[in-house]
Amino acid sequence: MNRRQFLELASMAGAATFLMPSCMSNNGGKQQSPMPNFLKGYEDLYKKDPRQAAIKCFEESKYGMFIHYGLYSLLGRHEWVQIKEKIHVAEYAKLMDRFTADKFDADFITDLALEAEMKYINITTRHHDSFCLWDTKYTDFKSTNSPAKRDLIAELYEQCNQKGLALHLYYSHGRDWRHPHAPNNDKWGGHARPEFEVKEPFYKYEEEHDLNIYVEFLYNQVAELIDMFPNIASIWLDGHGVPKSGDHTQFKCQELYDMIHQKQPHLLVSYKQGLLGTEDFLAPERKYKSNGKPEKPLEICDHLQRKGWGYLASEDGKHKSKKEVIKMLKKANSYPANLLLNTGPYGSGEMHSEDVKVLREVGEKIRSKGWNAVLGVETV
């Protein structure tokens, strides 16, 4: 079977963009939204409780693709390059003039996820540098204003819908190295801002600084993402070390969670290890530190590079092997948890060649041996 034949078979179940369940449910006769295509197979539970259907689907997914891509990818020196090298806002913004994303191919990415036997994709819509990969109306610092002139999230969303893959949207919540009213270092820990020797003129300080303006910006952008891409699987928040370092109630996170749930009944919310305890699933990095079985659905995120999430040129030739990825899958399954495995595309948007090779090898292993054999699970 060649690659195209395999992909055609793998995506047959996702040929239709949406599935329409019965429009009436047990919720007092209220009409439900069309069921997202990635929830095919969970129709009965969706009719009763859309969010529980999404949670069950998530728990049974096992394996997903994480993508860190943005302006930092052009430099190939870590997704935290702006803070590590103390690059001022105006200087960093010049990277947008070089952002073409000419080899970012949503069709290829989703095909690769299917070949790897992954059930979902998560992509950085906006990392800590605040550059947005969708056509947001709340800032001009976005891919559609770059030479790329493309809404990369819209492209990936369309392909995921067509192929039955769930799409989770990463959004940097606690950290922002561009917005004038984002958390400053004088009040918030956790590397809130780059530590410049002289004040950054783009930032507001002291009495001019108003965190509420930033919190409103966050709320509006997350709402916009859901309105533009209603059939995503979750809003996956990052940067919780900043609000956790102070009075996190100032970020009005529960209001944000409530809005997300109200906009789409199936939508899930995650905020890394958990900030409030009301998140739908936990998503710590590399390992789960608590003892015993997780109290919520769990996902472990890790990367194919030895270090770093965004493309690191210094890591070329050192990426993890098929054997190491299978070991990571086994470790995640032992919690139990999904493995969200990260790849950092080149600055052009092309998927890293080492990662493409390994992901295909792992997928072939899963298909030939079966999940239980790969994970070392004994069957009765």
What attributes characterize this protein structure?
single chain, 380 residues, alpha/beta, TIM Barrel, seven-stranded parallel β-sheet, two-stranded antiparallel ribbon, 14 helices, 33% helix, globular
Describe this structure in words.
With 380 residues, this protein is an alpha/beta fold. The protein has a single domain, classed as TIM Barrel. 33% of the residues lie in helices and 11% in strands. It has helices at residues 3-10, 43-48, 50-59, 72-75, 81-84, 89-93, 106-115, 152-163, 211-228, 241-244, 253-263, 322-333, 353-369, 371-375; strands at residues 18-19, 35-36, 63-67, 120-126, 166-172, 234-238, 268-271, 299-303, 338-343. The strands form two sheets. It has a seven-stranded parallel beta sheet with strand order 7-6-5-4-3-9-8, with helices on both faces. Strand 8 (299-303), helix 12 (322-333) and strand 9 form a beta-alpha-beta unit. The longest helix has 18 residues, at 211-228. The radius of gyration is 20 Å and the shape is globular. Keywords: Glycosidase, Hydrolase, Signal.
Q: pLDDT below 50 for ≥5 consecutive residues: which ranges?
A: 10-31
Largest sheet: 7 strands, parallel
Encode the helix/strand succession as letters. Answer: HEEHHEHHHHEHEHEHHEEHEHH
Class inferred from helices and paired strands: alpha/beta
Short description:
Belongs to the glycosyl hydrolase 29 family. This protein has helices spanning 3-10, 43-48, 50-59, 72-75, 81-84, 89-93, 106-115, 152-163, 211-228, 241-244, 253-263, 322-333, 353-369, 371-375, and strands spanning 18-19, 35-36, 63-67, 120-126, 166-172, 234-238, 268-271, 299-303, 338-343.
